[in-house]
Amino acid sequence: MNMYKSLSDKFSLEYVKGELLKTAYGSGDTFLGRLDPRTLIFWYLFFAIVPWFIHNEIILVSFLLFMLMMTYLARVSRLILFILCIGLLSEITVLFIISLFFGGDLASIGPLFWLTIKLAVISLASVAIFTSLDPEKFSDALLRLGVPAQVSFSVSYGYRILPTLIEEFHKVILSYRLRGKPPEKTGLLYWRMGVYYMKILVLSFYPLILNGAKRSRTTVEALETKGFSHSTNNQDVKKLKTAYFSFHRNDYFFIAFSIFYIGLSFTLSIYY
Amino acid sequence: MVKPIIQVKDVSFTYPGSEEKVLNHANLSIDEGEFIAIIGGNGSGKSTLCKTFNGLIPQFYVGDFEGEVQLGDRETSKYSVAELSKDIGYVYQDFENQIMRPTVIDDASFAPLNFGLKDYQERGLWALEVTGISTIANEFIWQLSGGQKHLLAIAAVLSMKPKVLIVDEPVAQLDPQHAEEVYKVLKKLNEELGMTIIVIEHHAEFIADYCHSVVLMDQGRILWKEPVKTALSKVDELVLHGIYPPQITQAANRMQTTRHHCNGLPITLAEGIEYFCHFPQVIPFPYTEDRQKVPTKEQPIISFEKTALQFQDLRRQRKQVLHNIHTSFYEGERIAIVGNNGAGKSSLIKLIAGIVKPTSGEVKVLNHTATKASPEKLGKYVSYVYQNPEEMFIEDSIKKEIELFLKARKVPDFEETVKTILYDFALSELQDKDARLLSGGQKRRVSLAIAAAMQPHIILLDEPTANLDIATKKHVVHMLETLKEHVKTIIIATHDMQLVAEWATRIIVMHKGEIIADGNRYDIFGDELLLQKAGLIIPQIIELSLKLGLPKPLYTIEEFCSYFHSVEGEGLAYEYV
Amino acid sequence: MSIQKSYQLTQSQKMMVFILSMSLYGLSNMFTELIPSIQLGFIELSVEYFAFIPLTLCILFHPLYAAVGAALGEIIFGELMLGQFGGIGEVEKFITFSLGMFIAGILVRNPLNRKQVTFGVLAGLLIHHLLGTIVDIGKVWIGVEELEAISGLAESVIVIEGIALLNDLLFSGILFALLPTLYLVPRLYGKIEPLLGMKPRNNKVHYSLGQIVTPKLVVISVVLATVAFLSEFLSESDWAFGEWEPEFLETIGSWFIWVPISAAALISVIMLIVMRSKSKSNVKELKNLG
Fold this sequence. Notes:
heterotrimer; B: six-stranded mixed β-sheet; C: mainly alpha; 11 helices; 2 strands; membrane (chain A)
């Protein structure tokens, strides 16, 4: 999925900030967003693993339909869907073209097509779930499921600290720019400019690492004074933190429907 | 009989990997319900001392620790930091880094939640209520102002309802109005809830107004602990340690040629009025205000033409930062831009540096349109000194920091220039050190030297005296004089009214993104309505001279003192001391 | 409370390294995700990632915490926040990446020895990318029913992955991992540790590189490092998967919930049970440490 990621180059810093807020906190109002995070995680675990081992075409197609439904319910942003499609298609195309060099023929398209479907099911499942899942809830769910508290803390801390980090990074880069000098010639395809900016980008981490060290010292001291280490080994605290988790009618309905649907797909595959 | 809540018995401490003793046989006892200030120059061990109170030292830092610290009746080395923290709260100087959670209410209730207290939400809300920020309970951290963040950091610690609250430099990063607000909160906690409050503080005026007693530290030792009035009256001793007592106390000290401290000197404004109103005044008035303006050159160096600036915040809402700015700056002016946080000071100077581009209108710098030029290009004429000097440090030695600009532009004989600058800013000795590892004052000096090395026409300083102790501050003012030899125009954005009063020839007052006044110190400091609107708090000495009903405001202690006959021998004034 | 004898960090110092590594590598990852890659035919010259950040921290501090922190930072900043979280797929990257960084960190004994740093960095990168390549090939293997039956497919997968591996090692590996690490490590050594209130890693141990690096040693150290990494990882993290079970059953109260997730549970839980049994055996050890 490298391509799908590299295509994201059009994102600007502003875009990142905006997207961050949207993905982070704009998710609670969909049907999936209102479900219990644990339901979503289990549902996702099934669809992220099982398709790999299914080679039956009917089941795969019905899974794909199910995923499309979920993607619709999760109101996944169109940009992400578009990038996802391009990524899948180009990856498979490249694979196909290269296989031709090694004596492959059109017959390889068949299996590659089903591989694509499989990948699509898995990717859509993750996109649908993780756009619906508020990261706070996700990290709480991880905590409840027994993942170390440091991990779930890091998720929410990441959201807290990102604006600060971007701000600091911005200032450091500005220092380089205000006191440095860009190359006079841009060079073929702006390669000189590219090198200039890459160099600044790498160098900027020298001050960032040192500043970060100071920051993390205060943060960890403060964590200690706020009893964080006390909470990491305490089951009651974990329960208290996730006390708002509860299974509602919608969760049962969602699970029951999923089981019914999966059962139906398997039954269909037996008869056809 | 009041019980001591903190007892430090012969404590010494050395950080791992260091030779120097940060604490050196320190002894101290703090009573329950005290409001105490710890003072001392940079590096005297104030923060380290406070970290022994909640057990961070020696449990968190594995260094050489000797002696014993007791919190209540518990010895701190025998309990975990978390356990002790239920009783003692610590608010850091860099308080932003102790805010852990993305939203206000989450952060406020974080500690009680970690301790598994069922009523963690109520506690969080209560703490927000006490600190007066309950209206922003559901906001995200990144939407808060500096002042709100500081109150949140306090609230997050308060939610544990501790017996002791330590606040490291509560006002260092705040404008005077917000600083006052923070102290009012601390006072309330002390008086209404009986909380013991410990502050590390440079600002003697706040100490005089709020604290009960003062502890002076020097090189890891505790020199003394005295009631506030006695402590602040020891003017000469304090100055020796780089602490400046309130201006009123300094003035009173100067007026008294014969030492006579039976009841101590006046330390607050009210006491100052009482004290000075009986002093014989010099007649006729010795000063005439220097009202002549710097001759206006026909050609401005910087001009703003109907400039406006908007930002888009994270929620994609447009925020108007500057409205219709229309003004010009000329060569030789010493310009101070004042106003509260969020008034638009920094944005204004960033426009000149070309770091931000206006949404509409134009900014011209030496006939270049700043709107179009890249920061690299403007860097030739304008240099911008950040509020936090560390953000300017990108190399690993001071010499390299200063060279960077000259080398990148292949300036011939740059070594000579670097040498001169190192000498001018008294950095020759330190040139191979990493700037980050220096003291606050030295860092500031390096940042000014970096700017001077760029040989700009215009230099822009954002809060050059923030976070400095008063002695270092005086040094910075002196550095500004050095800078003058290197540049044509200096523009400063600042909260520091003392600096403004002593240094600026032109003061621009900003409020909510607009320039609401522009004039010299006489125009600005004499206009009470204006000051109130802009939320400015004038230096104590000016206020005193106004309150005493003197014919005109006096700006420095020297001016003030020369207005009175000093009292010699058994003068009249003694009756009132 | 005396000065420590060997290089050992307290739990909170480890946490500092963890947070530092997580936030900075996370930030860098966000940028590298946004930098366009240069496409030369099928070969993609991408920046991929700023591995020098975790490498530097692994070499200077506790390798495990820096490595795991960085891997987690990538997931949080580069994936979750950009809305690109790949779920299970990230687990593989998490493990291979942190393993590679960890190995690089333990291979370097003296941070000021450039040869050692170079060797450590290259070894770490090679392990990370090689494992990643194997997993990628494995995915196609599992995903396509009869891979061998389709002529050319297996070869093309290997060619593509091979080119990607070379790119990762030679292009981004040297430019964005090796060179910056060589630049940063000596500059930060002795300077960053006091900021975290700790002592620099001991550099008194001197070996000549030729003496210690033999092919046999490399193989053995990789195997040992993997074991060490996994066991240390498990002992440091208090995985306790399964606490939810009773409560979960109570709430659902029906047996049929297990039908759809049994397949998933079979695969994931087996792995986690193995992990848990290991971690239980390590609990005593952990208590002794704590």
